[in-house]
Give the backbone structure.
Amino acid sequence: EEGSDVPQAAKSSWGPFLKSIASFNGDLASLTAPPFILSVTSLTEYSGYWAEHPEIFVAPAQEKDPQKRALAVLKWFLSTLKQQYSSRNEKLGSEKKPLNPFLGELFLGTWKDPSGVIGDTQLISEQVSHHPPVTAYAIINDKHGVKLEGYNGQKASFTRGTITVKQIGHAKYHLKEFNEDYVITLPSLHIEGIVYGSPYVELNKSSTITSSTGYVAKIEYSGKGWVTGKKNTFTATLSKEGSKDILYTIDGQWTDSFIIKEGKSKKEFDLYNAKASKTTPLYIAPLEKQDSLESRNAWAKVQSAIVNGDLETTSAEKTKIENEQRELRKKEKEEGREWERRYFTRVQEDPVLKALGDKSGVVLEPEKTDGIWVFDNAKYQKVLEKAKSPVAEATD
Ligand code: CLR
């Protein structure tokens, strides 16, 4: 099987693993995967996939025409799919099991732009719930007034020989200058290649982007489709809410290239080549400058043990983190309080979703995500102030 470079010895543990997933409970974190399929990357890092092309992320802000702006948002969304769902596969040869973040875990970074044309783009990712696992994030480009925020958890099931993963959550893309919001639903997915020991992701069904300006994008995923016979295939359309007229159609593969055509004339309008499009590396502070809650700092020992293939240390260091967490939860319980999220706040109602009503297609399931989460700008400003203050520096 293509891409399967798993050593024979390691693979001997795959059979028993396959048997164990047939009966698992839907919580991906509880899967005990064989060592060769363990990733050193925590799920809090996955939030970064939303903006690895900062120039495409901010492009809608420069578009004066609302229809073209909605198209630019759709194009940006489509450009993120390759990073979100196939980059690990490309880098590591297969999908791997990410580290399960602890409550309060942070992943912070910046896509820097020395040219100043794009401006810096900040990534804030925080684990807002551990059980069930839920990651919230905000991605902010001040120069262009672009902000993405959202949160998500996963619910998995084992069906027809494969793992199907439903994403619970949504994303919201905001343009300050136009005071516009785009609500994005997250596609469900399934994992292929499991029997061969080289799992990879294929997307299912469809997802949508609903704008406060009345534009609606629908993206249909067909996998190794009956249309092209190629994997990672999709068709997307952009139209005005309530109208049957299709303004643009986009066809192609999210891992390869796609063509944007005008609705009526079918004239080619734009083209995107995901393979040729370079990503911008995310700048992350050196370990010694990181907060103790920052992902790579907190998991450093586990990560190096995994890299060294040292199973004993991997499990010992994981246990240390788990025990610390258990102690914290116990103390909170005794004191009748809960862990204070650094950047996010639980709300009863999301104003952006409320404004769009039922149109967005988002079904909130607060009981599955430990609440409805929004980025808390006041908390963020407090963190920024503290970082600036010389007093904080002297006592830190
Ligand atoms: C997390 C949120 C991101 C998009 C995304 C991409 C791939 C998904 C991941 C999410 C969640 C975890 C995931 C992963 C693919 C495989 C992995 C479902 C939704 C599971 C846990 C790996 C299982 C591995 C076994 C086969 C061993 O924005």
The mean pLDDT is 93.
